[in-house]
């Protein structure tokens, strides 16, 4: 029984220890259970929170979507606005350039207009001057034309005269050539005769016959000055030519009419006065081919011609259309010259340099 008791005591102790442990475990479990409730509460709270957050998130998503759409619309709008702005900028720049260009063009056109106005004024002035000149030229050219017609007629006359003279000269040349040939033949014959006579004389003197020597034969060409100078001409001073009862000097130089007359007066003479056809023929015959001053002028009264010695002008030998007093465009012509080419007289400006003829009594 004791053993049983011991064993039962032991058994009881063990059970007590076990009970203690179990009590502790129960406490722990109770504590754990409390914790579990708290966790369950927390979980419920969390669930509520999650639901709320989910709701907000959805709101936010919705808002985000609408804002994204709004942004996209705004972006599109911005792009369009930017394009419009670019267009406007380009357009306004063009407008500005165009405005600048227009201003410059306007300025240029104004300048051109001013310059054209000036040009027009100048041209108008020029036209007026030209019109006056034209009027003068028309008057002058009509006068010139008349003069040229006169000159043409003179030239035609001159040509006729010259042709005639050339024919005369040719005829004279031919006859002179024949004359020269005859004379040469004659000279040859006379030379032979002279030789023969000299030969004969020599023979006779060798034979002792004394005779006078023959006169020396001198040959002169006909027409030389010394031969043609007549005995009466030799009463004029050296270099002067005699005709009728007067002496004439032909100058070797050319001077104005006044200086020519001065030269004659210093020689005790005056410019030649042509009193007759014979005297004129004589003068033309000795004249060289130049226009030559004579003692005739119309200085005192235009158109009234007077000889230097007061002799009245009874006969004249004016050329065609002369005296013309310069034809209205050559200046006054108040002094007279004789013209070899035309065998006539012409009035000329007294200042022209011409050769001249002096005349004085023999
Ligand atoms: Ca005379
Ligand atoms: Ca005159
Ligand atoms: Ca004249």
TrEMBL record:
Coiled-coil segments: 29-70, 173-207
Thylakoid recorded as keyword: no
Keyword match Disulfide bond: yes
Matches recorded under Pfam families: Lectin_C
UniProt domain C-type lectin: residue ranges: 243-359
GO terms, molecular function: carbohydrate binding
Keyword annotations of the record: Coiled coil, Disulfide bond, Lectin
Listed name of the protein: CD209 antigen-like protein B
Taxonomy of the source species: Eukaryota, Metazoa, Chordata, Craniata, Vertebrata
């Amino acid at each position: 029984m004791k053993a049983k008791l011991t064993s039962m005591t032991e058994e009881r102790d063990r059970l007590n220890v076990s009970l203690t442990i179990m009590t502790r475990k129960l406490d722990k479990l109770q504590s754990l259970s409390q914790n579990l409730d708290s966790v369950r509460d927390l979980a419920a709270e969390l669930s509520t929170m999650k639901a709320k957050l989910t709701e907000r998130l959805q709101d936010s998503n919705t808002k985000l979507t609408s804002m994204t759409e709004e942004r996209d619309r705004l972006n599109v709008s911005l792009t369009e606005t930017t394009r419009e702005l670019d267009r406007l900028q380009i357009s306004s720049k063009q407008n500005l350039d165009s405005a600048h260009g227009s201003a410059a063009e306007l300025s240029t056109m104004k300048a051109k207009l001013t310059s054209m106005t000036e040009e027009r004024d100048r041209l108008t002035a020029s036209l007026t001057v030209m019109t006056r000149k034209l009027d003068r030229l028309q008057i002058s050219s009509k006068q010139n034309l008349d003069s040229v017609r006169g000159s043409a007629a003179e030239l035609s006359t001159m040509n006729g005269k010259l042709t005639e003279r050339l024919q005369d000269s040719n005829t004279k040349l031919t006859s002179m050539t024949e004359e020269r040939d005859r004379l040469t033949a004659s000279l040859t014959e006379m030379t032979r005769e002279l030789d023969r006579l000299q030969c004969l004389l020599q023979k006779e003197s060798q034979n002792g016959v004394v005779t006078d020597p023959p006169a020396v034969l001198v040959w002169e060409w006909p027409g030389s000055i010394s031969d043609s100078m007549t005995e009466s001409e030799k009463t004029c001073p050296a270099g002067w030519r005699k005709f009728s009862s007067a002496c004439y000097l032909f100058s070797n130089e050319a001077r104005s009419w006044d200086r020519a007359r001065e030269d004659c007066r210093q020689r005790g003479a005056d410019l030649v006065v042509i009193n007759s056809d014979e005297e004129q023929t004589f003068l033309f015959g000795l004249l060289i081919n130049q226009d030559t001053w004579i003692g005739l002028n119309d200085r005192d009264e235009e158109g009234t011609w007077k000889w230097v010695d007061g002799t009245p002008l009874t006969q004249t030998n004016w050329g065609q259309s002369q005296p013309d007093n310069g034809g209205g465009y050559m200046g006054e012509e108040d002094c007279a010259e004789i013209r070899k080419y035309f065998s006539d007289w012409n009035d000329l400006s007294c200042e022209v340099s011409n050769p001249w003829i002096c005349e004085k009594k023999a």
